[in-house]
Amino acid sequence: MIKRREFLQWSAAAAAAMLARQGWAIEAPTLVPAQPRVPLAFGVPAGACDTHVHIVGAADRYPYTAKRAYTPPEASVDQLRALHRALQVDRVVIVQPSFYGTDNSCTMDAVRSLGSSARAIVVIDEKTPDSELEAMRRNGASGVRLNLATAGVTDPAASARFLRNAVERIRPLGWHVQLNTEPKLIAALKKDFDALPVTMVFDHFGGADAARGVNDPGFDALLDLVKSGKAYVKISATNLFSTEPPHYAGYAAMAKALIAANPERILWGTNWPHPGARPKGHDIAQLLPWRDIDDAVVMNLLASWEPDAAVRKKILVDNPARLFGF
Predict the structure, then answer these.
(1) How confident is the model at residue 1 (pLDDT cuts 50, 70, 90)?
(2) Tell me: the pLDDT tens digits for 77-124?
(3) Distance between CA atoms of 134 and 141, rounded to whole angstroms?
(4) Can you list the domains of the chain with their CATH numbers?
(5) Residue 15 neighbours by CB under 8 Å, 6+ apart
(6) pTM for the model
(7) What are the residue ranges of helices labelled H in 196-263?
(8) Is 302 exposed, middle or buried (0-12, 13-18, 19+ CB in 10 A)?
(9) In this structure, are residues 267 and 315 in contact, taking their beta carbons and an 8 Å threshold?
């Protein structure tokens, strides 16, 4: 009988082969989330925060939603602790991943395990009771995520409805809305964002394309929202939208433009454990390995994007402390 570990290894190899046949340029796949291998290039200030990670628990305890886009390997709290010891990071924001749907159990259990150094961004819908929202707030949740990109929602009218419904639910809690989308949609909804009574946070450079950089249509709208103080943006997941080598030079211009627009609205995150690339037609029942990303390389980019240690402290310490309530 095939053992679980052997099955997982076979699944990883099969997924990698499938991706290669589809023409995807990816890092070596791995069933165990990668840990840093290079030294840090700058002094990380005390209280630094990684504002975007995911935790994946055992599947028999934390079942995946049937509507998920992929099936991940595990990524534990202990592995996250090891990552942050190497990066000299003291605080973390755990973001509810799409494959758990609106069941936030794994995310909230991870926050409880980590204690006061952790916060959660959760996913809700119209069926989530107010009592559950309040319980999550008491236990470390500080915002709600709308994952429009993974859900394939690109229509401005539909997106605006999702946004209004979320704001109505979370406004009494003092939460913010975190949006995973693309610059074109940000531009289409800019007036809606300006009028919202809550703070906005945009994932991963607002979903901008590194090849286009600051010229990606809609990126100027993101810059305006950041400059006005209406929105925060995470300069995170530099591997996610680019097949460039590890220096990820395509993101430098965007990072520098966003920091220059308003350094008090910039957040940094790894996107650990780095979900793999999903080719067209991917079978969600097949395990999709993590990307082998060295997050020390990713973190060192920050020093090249912003040489001023005082500004880096704002990005790593002060801004997340203000937004997430550390």
Answers:
(1) very low
(2) 999 999 999 999 999 999 999 999 999 999 999 999 999 999 999 999
(3) 9
(4) 46-55+76-270+308-324 (3.20.20.140)
(5) 29, 276, 286, 287, 288, 289
(6) 0.88
(7) 219-228, 252-261
(8) buried
(9) yes
For residues 15 and 276, the answer to whether their CB atoms sit within 8 Å is yes
The pair phi, psi for residue 148, each rounded to 5°, is: -65, -35
Residue 66 and residue 98 in contact, taking contact as beta carbons nearer than 8 Å: no
Determine the average pLDDT of the residues in 294-305.
93
Following DSSP, what letter does each residue of 203-255 receive, concatenated? SGGGG--TTTGGGSTTHHHHHHHHHHTSEEEEEE-TTTT----TT-GGGHHHH
Report d(CA 70, CA 277) in Å as an integer: 10
**What is the distance between the alpha carbons of residues 175 and 144, in angstroms, rounded to a whole number?**
7
- Tell me 197's DSSP state: S
Query: Alpha-carbon distance 112 to 224, whole Å?
Result: 36
Instruction: State pLDDT tens for residues 155-176.
Output: 778 788 888 889 999 999 999 9
Q: Please say whether the beta carbons of 32 and 73 come within 8 A.
A: yes
C-beta separation of 55 from 106 below 8 A = yes
Q: How far is 276 from 292, CA to CA, in rounded Å?
A: 9
Residue in this structure with the two tokens 């001023």, named with its chain if needed:
308
Q: Distance (Å, rounded) from C-alpha 126 to C-alpha 168? A: 11
Question: Which residues, at least 6 apart from 229, have a Cβ–Cβ distance to it below 8 Å?
Answer: 262, 264, 265
Q: Does the CA dihedral 6-9-11-14 come out positive or negative?
A: negative
Residue type, 307: P
| Contact call for residues 275 and 291 (beta carbons, < 8 A) | yes
Q: Quick check: 174 and 141 in contact, CB under 8 A?
A: no
Please say whether the beta carbons of 325 and 141 come within 8 A.
Answer: no
